[in-house]
Structure formats: C-alpha cells, structure tokens
Design goal:
Blueprint: E1 2-6, E2 14-21, E3 24-33, H1 38-50, E4 55-66, H2 68-83, E5 87-92, H3 95-104, H4 106-110, E6 113-114
Parallel strand pairs: 3-4, 4-5, 5-6
Antiparallel strand pairs: 1-2, 2-3
C-alpha cells in the first residue's frame, strides 16, 4: 500500500509529492527550486529521512530550475542519507537540473542519473 502526500500550497514555485512503498520512498519535485522554494523540498526530505526507510529516490524530472539553494538541499540530503545508511537515487532529465549538478560536482557525488522526461505512465520506485 502506498502513502501519498502532496504539498502544492506551500509554494507557488514548486510542488513536492512523497510516495512510500514499504521501505522505499520517492520524493518527486516539480517546478522551480530556488532560495524561496528550496525550504519546501528541505522540509519534505528531512521528514522522510527522519522515518525508517532503506531507499530514497529524489525525482527531479519535473524541475525546470535549480539554483544553489536547491543544490545545498540535495547535498544535505545526501549526507543525511549516508549517515542513516539509506540508498539514495537522484533522477534528472533537463539541462536546467543536470548542468548545475555537473558543474558543482554533485552529479558524481549523488550518483545522479539522467533519465527520460516525465510522462503520464512513467513510474519510478
């Protein structure tokens, strides 16, 4: 059974969906992640990582903009996941997300994966 939580009212720039399938959790972001919306993502990731889980997927395929604030949130999530021995997977498809991750070295650190853009029947768990 999957649990679904949506937080689209917290920011007009980004929406965050969290879906749990047992020990695996997927956090899907859509919109822009900048200094005003990054705290929304940060709060969701902190809440997820406070729970018992084995795998965390952060799906950024719906993100159209990612700045340094978002990069800091992802780096902090990576650190926290490592401390808790949670396998972390980061998915991206747009140049607007991939390029900042590559330039900062986070692409390799996070083990990020370039995947196809979001489609209605795409599901990653």
């Amino acid at each position: 059974m999957a649990a679904l939580f949506a937080d689209s009212s917290a920011s007009h720039l980004v929406s965050i969906d969290v879906v749990a399938h047992g020990p695996a959790v997927q956090v899907t972001a859509a919109g822009e992640i900048d200094s005003s919306s990054a705290p929304v993502l940060e709060q969701r990731l902190e809440a997820v990582l406070a729970a018992e889980l084995e795998r965390l997927t952060i799906d950024l395929r719906g993100v159209s903009f990612l700045d340094s604030a978002g990069l800091c949130v992802l780096a902090a999530a990576h650190k926290r996941a490592g401390e808790k021995q949670v396998a972390l997977r980061v998915l991206a498809s747009s140049r607007a997300v991939i390029r900042p991750l590559q330039i900062t070295g986070l692409w390799q650190l996070l083990g990020a994966e370039q995947v196809a853009a979001v489609s209605d029947d795409a599901s990653v768990a």
